[in-house]
Structure formats: C-alpha cells, structure tokens
Amino acid sequence: MANYSTQSDMRVTHIFSLFSLLVCIQLLEVVGQSTPSAILSENSTLSKISSNESNMSTPLLGDAENNLSTTPTTLTSASGSGSVTEKVDNNLTTVKADNESSTTQVTPTLNTSTQRVITPAPKTATTTSSSTTIMSIPTPTPSPLPANTDIGQCTCDMTSAGCDVNCCCDTDCSDLDRQAFSYCTDHNYLTTNERYCFREGMIVTNNSEYKTNLTQDGLLCIMFDNYDERNYYTIPDMIETLEEFDTYKHLYARPSYSFSSTNNQPEIVKQHYQAGDPVYTVSDADVVGMLGLPAPLTTKQCDDGNTAPYLYDKDYECVRLLADVAMDCTQEVALATRVYYRDMKIVPNPAMLKRSAASNPVPAKQTQNVTTTPPSTTTPPSGESASEASSPSNSSDQPSTETTTSNGSSTTAEGASPTALSRTTLYSNESMVAIEMETPVMCMNRLGVKYACNATEEELQAPVYNSTAGTCSYVVLEVTYTITHNGTEGITSARVAFLLGEITSEKSSLLQTFRTVYRWAGEKEEELFLRSGNPGYQVDQPIMAGKLVTKNTSSAIELNQDRNSWMTLLTADSKGLCVSNTLQRTPIKFGVNMRSGCLVEVMFTNMSEACKLIHEGAISALAGDRPDRVATFGTSLVANPGDWVTVLETNTPPEIVGSATTEAKCSGVVLGLHIEIAYANVGSLANPQAKVVGVVYRYDKPQDIAFMCVAPYCQPGRLRARQAFEVKSSVSFVDASQPPYRAAAEIPIIDVHLPGDFFYPFLTAVGGRPRAATWLLTVLLAVSLARGSVCV
Amino acid sequence: MAPGQSTVIRSSLPYQILLYCNGWYSGAFVIAELLVFIYKGETLPYARGNLPAEIILLLLLGCLEGVRLFLGQKGNLTERGMAVGLSLVLSMATLVGFLYLTLWQTYVLRLEVILTGIGLAFIGLELIFGLISIISFARAAPYG
C-alpha cells in the first residue's frame, strides 16, 4: 500500500477500510460461518485492530449474528502502514451504536487534533442492517449483554467494596488477605482458547461442575471449534407485554402450584367411603365435620387436625402439654371423654351428605374437638361457601341472611331461615351412627394397674380436680374407636373405649394414645388371626413359634394367642433390671436384628446364696417361655407340625449351677443368649418368599462372675452396695437363600462314520471302520492336492 | 503422424502424476471424512441441521473434485488448454471447500486438518503445474 500524505486521502482510506471490514464480516455471515478465528483480508489497509476495539465495533453491525459479535476478531494483513493504523484505531475507539434503534453513528475522537465526523455511507448502513430507523424519543434500553461470553467471572465476590473470605478473585482482597484464605472457592469455569487442540470444558451438557481429563492428544481432538454457542445461554429478550409473558410461560413453564380459584372445601362427591377417606361426622348443631384422631404430626405434640382415615387401623401416641394442671383439668377439652363421642354422630355414607347438601348450607370442614365449641366459630369464614350453598338452596333465602350466618350472629338467622329445619333433620336422622361408649370404662392407677372405674356418669364425662390432693382424675389416656362397617354400605356401628387415668400437679405433660380399629360387619373378633406373612414371612412381623404338644397319637403346635409373645427377647424395665414377665418382653420380628440387655443385681453379702437365684434369673430372663417349634411360613398350620422347624440349642445351661467357690464369686453362670434364625427365599426371584429353615438358641459359655469393688466402695462397710451384671440376648437373621444356577446339557457326541465302501477300490473296510492305511491314503491325497494348487 | 517425424509431447508428466495421485487421494479423503463425520456426529453436539449440511457439502466437494481431476487429466493428455483452464477454475471452488473443512466447519479435528492440508497441497501444486501446461499448450498452438 502506498503512503498517504494528505488528510483527505486518509479519510477516504478510513471509509474504505471500514467498508471493507464490514463487507468482510458480512461475507462471512453469508457463508454461514459462526466464528472465523482468523480472517485474511486481502487488500485491507488495516494492519491490526486489537480485540477490544473489535468488540466495540461489533454493535455497529446492529442485528448481525450474535456469534459474530463475540469473538475477538483479529484482522491481519501483510501490508499496511503504521500511521494509517494508528489513525484508524483512534477513530474506531469511539464508535457507538444503539442496540435496537440502530442509529449507527460514528462520533469523532477527542484526542486527535482535528475533529472529524465519519458518517458511514448509506451503502454501509444497508449492508449492516436492513432497517435503519431513527427514534425520535429514546427509549431506555437495557445494558447490553455480550453474547456467548462467560459473564460471571467472579461469582464469589458477594460483598462490594469488601473482601470475601476464600474468594481469591475478589479484587478487594489484598495479597496479605489472600494468605489467610484456606482455599479458593472461585472456579476457572471456562478457559476458551480457540487455538488449543485440547480445551478445558469442551462440552457442557448440564449445569453440574465438570472436570476434563486429557486422555489422548491424538488425531481426533478438536483443533477449531466453531460452535461456541453451545456453552452459553442465549440472551433473552425483555418481556414487555402480557401476551409475550404467556407465550414464554406456555413454552417453558413446568407444573407448579396452580393458582386456579378452586374451592378449598373438600367436595363430597363419593357415593360411598373408600379406604383412606375421612369419616364424616355431624354434630348436634348440624355441622358436618370429620372424625378426628389426634396424632403427632410434626412434633410429639398432639395435632387435633388429623383425621382418621377410613378402613386403616391407626395407632397414634402423642403428648399434650399442660401448663397448669388445676386449670387445664377442667378447661382442656382434650382431657375429657365427652369430646370424643358425645354430641356427634358418624355419617354412615357420604352419599347422605350429598343428598342433604341442597338443604344444608354449611358443608364445613370441622376439626376434632370443635363439637364442644359454639358452631358459629366453626362455620368457615368464607362467603364463598355461603354463596355457593345459597345457589342450590331455595330462592326464598335472601343473600343477607347468609351473610349474617357467616358473620356469627347465627341463632336468629338460623331460626328464621327455613333451612334450620333441614339442619336438625340431618343430625336426628335415624341412619346416623351414634358413637357408643364401651362399659365398663377402664381406669389405670399410678402403678399401671387397670381396673374398672367406679365413677359416676358425671365424672366419666369430664376430669375432676381434687384441690387438696392436687390431682386430676379421670383424664383420658387412651381412646380406641372400633368402627364396624359393611363395605360400600358404610358404617353400621361405632364404639369408643376409654382408658382413664390420674395426673398430678407435677406433671406438665400427658401421653395420650388414639386408635382406630375397623371391623367388617359379621366378622368375629375371636376368629381373626393376623398372619406374619402369606406365605413367606414379611419384615417386621413377629416370628411364629410355639410348643409341640402330643396327645395320644396326634401332635399339634400350641401357639400363644398374643402374637407378640411368640418368640421374645428379654426386656429391661425402666431401671434397667431384668423383667421375667413374658408380656413385657420384646417380640422378635422377622428380619430385624436386635440386641437387648438387662441387669441382674446382687449384693456382696448375699452373693454366695444368690448364685442359684442369679442363674435361674438369667435363664428365665434369657429364654423366657422358650418355644421349641418355629413356623417355616407365616401361614403354617398348627395342626401340621411338619411345617414347623425344631429349635436347636447349643451350650444349654445345666439346671443346677455349681456352688460358689469363694464368697464373692459365682461359677458357671450363663449370661447371654444369641438366637440365630436362618431363612431362605423361595419362589420366584421377582417375588421372593422368606421361609425360616432353622433356628438356633446359642447360649453363652458359663462364666464366673465375681463381685468387684471400685475404689471408694471397697471399704468394708460399703460392700453392701449392689452390683449389677448384664444379661444380654440378641437375635440375628441369616439369609441362607440359594442363588439360582443354570445347568447346561452336555454337548452331544456326534458320531460320524464314513460309509463302509467309501474307499472301495483301494481299501475294503471291515465292519465300516477304516484301518490305519486309510489315514495314510487320506494324507497322501491331501498333500497331492495342495501341491497341485501351488503349481497352478 | 508420419514415421520418422519427431513429435513434441507437451503434456506435463508431473501434472499428470499429480492428478492421478490426487484422484486416489480424493476418494480416500471422502471416505475418511465420512467416517470422521460419523465419529463427530456420535460424540459431539451439533446444532440442528449442521451435520447433514456439512455432509452434503462434502459429497458435493467430492463430485467437484472428480470433475476437476477428469478435466485436468483429459486436458493435459489432449493438450487442450481450455479443459485445463476449466479444471483450474473448478479448483478455486474446491479450494473454498477444503478451506471450509479446515477452518469453518463446526468442529475441526486434527485429523481433518492433516487430510485437508494434503488436499490443499495437491490443489496448490496442480495450480502451478496446470498454469505451466496451459502456457505451454498456448505457446505451442500457433505452431501446431
């Protein structure tokens, strides 16, 4: 290129170079390339434009491809004079352009001596963007985002003008600060270098952090990557109209909470109850509610809002906190029996509610215990339900009446309105099931003994506070609803049983138990037998075990009625001492490995005498009422002892223990029992059924126990102190399932014989079996054939 | 041609050798590129429609190469400057094709850089030898 001497010539060159640059980029765009990393422009006067300048110049392109604006385009040329380059650089640094209202104008630089305005030629404008409109009123445009760039360069810098801990890229941190950092939280997410064959983070398919390992540096690695967009999000447009928003939502929204204005009230649409449905009740004030079953929902405290699901037997234990026993005794409704059954009836069928819905304006959700409170408060504060109910109700009802009902001054409105009549009919309907209280009501004293309460009817309804003793008696401890139902026909009867107790003023909390038991109508309670599995044992079901009883010639298994005392482990009482009572022992459940221990206490002085007692106590604590047969399946019949496996024993302790050798020592005491139950899965692999195949009671070896004193207790007077020895038992389950195996048939032996006269002219076979000479002939034949083929 | 009369063969032997070898090479190149495209399509994410477009472009490039090499060989053997010139014109188009595969396609593997580099070398040498042959044919024409 020639050197330009005059300024006018230089200006022409500037325009020309700008034009050629644009044409170059436009050409590339037309070709369909995304980002050429290097462009060889043939006759460009520009020698070099540094990358940030090209970034600034890219908005000039208006609505050009995003990818074009991102790459640091380097324009190189073989020829070009330095002076021209400098001038062009100066001019290009201040190129400005609006994003959408692409008013492309190039303002002059201030650092040059003469101010020049370079107005792009109309030709240039048309090449860059087809629609060039000049907006009279400038709209506020959002700050432009560079496309296809990693904009979050230091995401851990959360405090502006402050140093963030462990954020090494934070410019507010000094080098000394950084020395206090334990590590750097900032990640070098993407280092893009087009020239490298290996690039960190070549492919981003999801948002998780990734790690790239250089496995090979071979022929199949990428040298030029022209698809950089895949690593970046596209820059979304701002949403300005509601329609646009809806389009976005339709395109991208996933199911979330729907804010549709549906009625919150549960609609009673079913013809009959289904398992899990709430059981509807109706109070004497004709408020429809649901049978509650207080349960610990989030904490251990009773939540009265829980409803009893239909047909599911539930058993909840929860705590009531009592601030002041004297006051709560009479004030707290949850302690009184009456709230659990009085003044409410169970709706036998939800269809009945539906039938009366037209005349019943309050299909209200009602929580437990609110039957005692005035109905005006239980009425939902929703004008919605009132207005909804008013539409099916007859037209004589004014809307004003309904609003007064919901406002709370209910009695007059109800009395005046014709619907009051229908309300009373719902409660007094004969088909409504009243909840009967089982008699006698059981009481439990402080020692845990249950007995039939001798209390008046009044006392049974609500607790009584004895101010002199400071006790509150007849407090509800247990509530058990027994509901008899008949499938689709609904609930036929309901009973409630209570266990009442006494609380003292020291107690600030009360443990209550709530149960529901569902029975099919016609079902006999005594015939029910809860299996442990059908047929294979199910996890957490008690192991079925009993004793073999032989009568005359026939034998059968004697099985305890209580399934929880079939096969048991020892249990400790609240002090950790052994309990010999069978009822309180822990049942062994299938598949649950357990270990339990309890303490046997002795004193130094009576140790030698106690040896026998200890031994017996330990044996009884260990084995309890030991069964000798265990059912192989949960469905094994007691009449068929063949289905029951014999319990094996090792190290069975002797009945009589040897006497103490010294005063403070017992020898030969068994202190441990380990039960091992082997089971095997049988049946289909997809549906394995556990079968118990063997049970072993493994007693610990008899050992000597000696009284040991710890330093302060070794004084002679202190030797009366009690010392405890632990008796422990455990159960473990062994899966002895045989893995399935595949047996393949033997490879068949193929018996191939040549026909007897195969070599007839040469040889004569005897009995169809070729002799040794036959083989020789075959080899000769093969060799000659091979030679012949080679020669050919 | 009468016996005893010496004839000057103006066809360029190196040009012919180049064209012959280039023919084999182009066939191998197209096959190798197709395999590379299969590899890339399996392992790398592509924008919609890019991969088919690139494969079509490769096939077109292969056809163009065939025509170019045929014209070049025929022109060289028949000493027709016109056919060789046409071949050179076509080589401009194939040059762009090769450059696309070297620089601007979605992913450029190192293998492709090597393969296209060889192709470009062929084109470059054939350009030189083709020009020489055209000149020699043209100079011979008034005397022929």
UniProtKB/TrEMBL annotation, chain A:
The keyword Chloroplast does not apply. Residues 49-58 have a biased composition (Polar residues). Residues 272-513, 532-699 form the Tectonic-1-3 domain. Residues 68-83, 121-138, 371-417 have a biased composition (Low complexity). It comes from the Eukaryota. Residues 1-32 form the signal peptide. Keywords: Cilium biogenesis/degradation, Glycoprotein, Signal. Residues 150-233 form the Tectonic-1-3 N-terminal domain. Residues 49-86, 121-144, 357-423 are annotated as: Disordered. Belongs to the tectonic family. PANTHER family: TECTONIC, TECTONIC FAMILY MEMBER. This is Uncharacterized protein LOC106807786 isoform X1.
Automatic annotation (TrEMBL), chain B:
The keyword Transmembrane applies. Its main location: membrane. It is a multi-pass membrane protein. Keywords: Membrane, Transmembrane, Transmembrane helix. It is found in: Membrane. The chain crosses the membrane at residues 17-39, 51-71, 83-101, 113-138. This is Transmembrane protein 216-like. The lineage of its organism: Eukaryota, Metazoa, Ecdysozoa, Scalidophora, Priapulida. PANTHER family: GEO07735P1-RELATED (PTHR13531:SF0), GEO07735P1-RELATED-RELATED (PTHR13531).
